[in-house]
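Summary for the steering committee. The consortium agreed at its last meeting that each partner would contribute one worked example illustrating the joint modelling workflow. Our contribution is presented below. We chose a case with several input lines so that the handling of multiple components could be demonstrated. No manual editing was applied between input and output; the record is shown as generated.
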Amino acid sequence: MGSLKLQGISKSFGPVEVLKDINLEVETGEFLVFVGPSGCGKSTLLRIIAGLEDQSAGQVLIAEDAVDHLPPSKRGIAMVFQSYALYPHLTARGNMSLGLKQAGAGKDSIAQQVQLAADMLSLETLLERKPSELSGGQRQRVAIGRAIVREPTLFLFDEPLSNLDAALRVNTRIEIAKLHRTLKSTMVYVTHDQTEAMTLADKIVVLNEGRIEQVGHPLELYRRPANRFVAGFIGSPKMNFVSGEAAAAFGAAEIGIRPEHIALSRDNGTWRGVVSHAEHLGSDTFVYIEVEDIGLLTVRTLGETICQPGEDFYLTPNTEALHRFDASGVSIES
Amino acid sequence: MRISNRSLTRSALVHLILGGYTIIALFPVILIAINSFKSRKAIFRSPLSFPDTDSFSLIGYETVLKQGDFFGYFLNSLSVTLVSLFFVLLFGAMAAFALSEYRFRGNTLTGLYLALGIMIPIRLGTVAILQMMADLQLVNTLWSLILVYTAQGLPLAIFILSEFMRQISDDLKNAGRIDGLSEYVIFYRLVLPLVRPALATVAVFTMIPIWNDLWFPLILAPGEETKTITLGAQVFIGQFVTNWNAVLAALTLAIVPVLILYVIFSRQLIAGITSGAVK
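What follows is the complete predicted structure of the assembly.
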């Protein structure tokens, strides 16, 4: 129950193939995140699951039932959109109850459902307001409330935090995580932000150019990326890639080292370089170092490392945490 | 100080230009209106002066109201305009929604075909239209006018409305679909209210040419029963003698309804014109 299965989903817009043979299974109660750069097909995939877009080939199964011929409202799903998409002519209460009204639910049960969702999202005082009288964060909470009220087997989120400012984004992210714990429903979430993916997901699906690059638990993707794309996409700041002689020394066409796996020293180390820029965040310092024959490397050090552009440093990669890739970009298992 | 000075002269200049244009635009209308309240002699003696106790006369209005079924003409004009307007807005919005919302083979081609009417004046087809109306036995009925005006208004309506409808977020329509709203409900309840300014713009641009048209009433519906007000006013223009009092009075009366409709739509109209520019 509640699980989602995608079998051989493909989608083309004219000659452009945006999704290529997507196969995926989601367990009940799982929080799945589609992540990838813009244009990778993640939103299209979500819209196909929702039934807002027809797939060119393949099958969507929700709770073991093929839903390909069903309209969105009959699929047992609810969706939260990036632009909130609240009905401008209805109050928050009206927005939340419309779906149930359409489905023919009784007045009392609608009122009860709305009350329940409003309690969960602390919306009680806002119920009689129109969307234009709400702030961005409040609008998104109403939109989430509209989804909860339908008691769907599957929640779909389409970049719900992208329109919020940084502080609200963190708050709403925590709220969504809490919601998942309370409701224990299956959720599918689309984002281009790898931080959101890492913090929310039980399972991340990394998409690139219409293909699944890797599926796995956030830390699994961080520790053992299947290829160069996933390695570069997951983790912030981005992983450093080194090719040429330095990589050949490790028996690979290219090696990847995360910024947090390089040690800095003023006295000795494997590579020598000159600081080109440093970002002091207090808790961390990101140092960008121009290394001879290798190029610019990002190094993350804990705490406040005092350094100025132009200073010399030695860098030592932690060979245990090194990632090796062959010429086609696939990880070499050690 | 210098900056504020300069902006003062600039705004004065702007107001001067706009004021001048307003005077030029309103002059003929006001000329008609003031002369309609004057006696025949006074119209010719000093056409530019306002009516005074000496020259004031309602003879024009009396003639208009006595001669011919002026109220009937009025009603004809009003019903033709309103019914055509209703059809233009309804069918125009529906076609625009289909063109902007659904992907189907020949979408762009259909859009271009429908926009063709903006460039080709419908009057070129007058002979064919007359033949068709005669075959359908619609000559001398208001329906002949309504059908022609609906066809005449649709291209521009579809063009403007489909542009506006493209700007409405897909998310909103999709949210409606997930909540189980039918395409019709999405169209009437979600999309139409959001393009209200565009509807008002289209309404004004459609309404005025219809109300003022003389060509099609003259050809398709010249009968006494179906005369529109612009045609009715022609009664007073004779080959040898023209009753200027009556003509001016009839024209003044004809301005009133469009003016009222314009005032109703104008607030939305301004919102519609500026929304494209400011956003």
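Chain A has nine helices and 18 strands. The interface with chain B takes residues 47, 50-52, 71-74, 77-79, 81-89, 98-99, 102-103, 146, 150, 158 of chain A (CB under 8 Å).
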